[in-house]
Design goal:
It is built from 15 helices and 16 strands. The chain is α/β, with parallel strands linked by helices. Helix 5 runs parallel beside helix 12, helix 9 runs parallel beside helix 10 and helix 14 crosses helix 15. The structure holds pyridoxal-5'-phosphate.
Length: 462
């Protein structure tokens, strides 16, 4: 079998890669049969907000990798930190008997950055699914430590996405993510969320809708018995579910309800953490302090896998209790990996120093306005929504009925392919285009995205 060599070195290698894609590896969220013989762009290089594929096409990366390359590609500082750490110490565990310096430094840094939220302790993992899994386990242990062992259940929201380990998947609020792997973990309860485009209750204004959803949540808590609920998990802005920005009163209501019944509030900041929503952390848009925060993705700008779960003082202090039950019987070989933490220290520093959140707010609202203007020219756009640099453009067959294109309809993908040939790579989820580029995007590049989509919609027959 040929071996892959260097990008562009010879055509045989390029053809070999295209031939082999999907043949020996299943790709996440894809039907293996679709990948073989229909190769997706094979990305070989990145610079700034652009990526280049095997065919030499340079494209503006509207996916930001997968909502994660916040600082953009080719950041020498992060690369240097990774290579320096690899030379110094490529690995050492934090299991009992040892520790490593980068993970100590990064845990302190994360608590410093979230001082406003009152975070006091950090547990590391290798990504977002680890971060939510850890949050669920720490929440259950917390309640055992404080003498309420019956608090076992978790609440989550319709359209929410919390990763695909068994815990996170059980909290996900979409059938597609759960169906093939059921039964779910017992004790996960999913409730309505204030989806403004396809609301569960018609004919009410956004704040009223948020109140109605919050009231439903409270009714569910009372029905379940508050003293059986461990925590509520939610994204400050729902991402994978289609970018749903909640009305401003919703998160404060979540906090108020959790407080009323003593329930822990977990903010899943895996996408929103480190600037994407226009604030350093998504909860700051809503002025809410959660009890637990899950972060990943932007923590290293995607340069190397890392995730973290942050506990506030209320939660962390439960481990001051003595006894065998206070051992954190949870963790991974790669918890606090020194290379990942060294990358995290620099990536997080860049996010703060370069005010990536401020740029996401500024360029994000400019881009959102540009995309919204396309609605005047293209009847097929049903909705454009988002905050900061997390935006969705939803296509519909009929704007009045909001009838969506089905998963087998080729039209959205044809538009996306045309965008690709216009030099802009979108992420297509059935009938939605997700736009989550690096947070270093500038206004001229935002114009390029709007122009590429405008042209693609104009030229793609339905
Ligand atoms: C809000 C949220 N939580 C958790 C996850 C899971 O993260 P990972 O894919 O790194 O396991 C994701 C991934 O997109 C996410 O968007």
């Amino acid at each position: 079998m040929a071996t892959s060599t260097v990008y562009g070195s010879n055509m045989d290698d390029a053809n070999w890669l295209k031939h082999e894609v999907g043949r020996h590896a299943f790709h996440p969220m894809a039907d293996p049969k679709d990948t073989v013989g229909n190769p997706p762009p094979i990305i070989m290089k990145g610079d700034g907000v652009y990526v280049t594929d095997l065919d030499g096409r340079r494209m503006l990366d509207c996916q930001g990798g997968l909502w994660c390359v916040n600082a953009g590609y080719g950041r020498e500082e992060i690369i240097q930190a990774i290579t320096d750490q690899l030379r110094e110490l490529p690995y050492y565990t934090n299991f009992p008997g040892s520790a490593n310096a980068p993970s100590i430094r990064l845990s302190a840094k994360l608590c410093e950055l979230t001082a406003q939220e009152g975070m006091a302790s950090v547990l590391f993992g290798s990504g977002g699914s680890d971060a939510t899994e850890t949050a669920f386990k720490m929440a259950r242990q917390y309640w055992k430590l404080v003498g309420e062992p019956e608090r076992l259940k978790f609440l989550s929201l319709r359209n929410g996405y919390h990763g695909l380990h068994f815990g996170g998947m059980s909290a996900c609020g979409g059938d597609a993510w759960r169906r093939s792997y059921e039964p779910l973990v017992p004790g996960f309860i999913n409730v309505e969320s204030p989806n403004l485009y396809r609301p569960p209750f018609e004919g009410v204004d956004p704040e009223t809708l948020a109140d109605m959803c919050a009231n439903l949540l409270e009714r569910e808590i009372l029905f379940q018995s508050p003293d059986t609920i461990a925590a509520l998990i939610a994204e400050p802005i729902q991402g994978a579910g289609g970018v749903h920005v909640p009305p401003a009163n919703y998160w404060p209501r979540l906090r108020e309800i959790c407080d009323r019944y003593g329930i822990l509030l977990i903010a899943d900041e895996v996408i929103t953490g480190f600037g994407r929503s226009g604030e350093l952390f998504g909860v700051r848009n809503w002025g809410v302090k959660p009890d637990i925060m899950c972060v990943a993705k932007g923590i290293t700008s995607g340069y190397i896998p890392l995730g973290a779960t942050l506990l506030n003082e209320r939660v962390a202090s439960a481990w001051e209790a003595q006894g065998p039950r206070s051992v954190v019987m949870h963790g991974y070989t790669y918890s606090g990996h020194p290379v990942a933490c060294a990358a995290g220290l620099v990536a997080v520093d860049i996010a703060v120093r370069e005010d990536l959140a401020g740029n996401a707010a500024d360029v994000g609202s400019y881009l959102l306005a540009g995309l919204r203007r396309l609605m005047d020219r293209h009847e097929v756009i049903g909705d454009v929504r988002g905050k900061g640099l997390m935006i969705a453009v939803e296509l519909v067959c009929d704007r009045t009925t909001k009838e969506a294109f089905g998963p087998t309809d080729p039209y959205p993908m044809a538009v996306s392919d045309k965008c690709l040939s216009n030099g802009v790579m979108l992420r297509t989820i059935v009938n939605k285009f997700i736009i989550s580029p690096p947070l270093t995007l500038n206004r001229a590049q935002a114009d390029d995205i709007v122009a590429a989509l405008d042209d693609a919609l104009a030229k793609t027959p339905r």
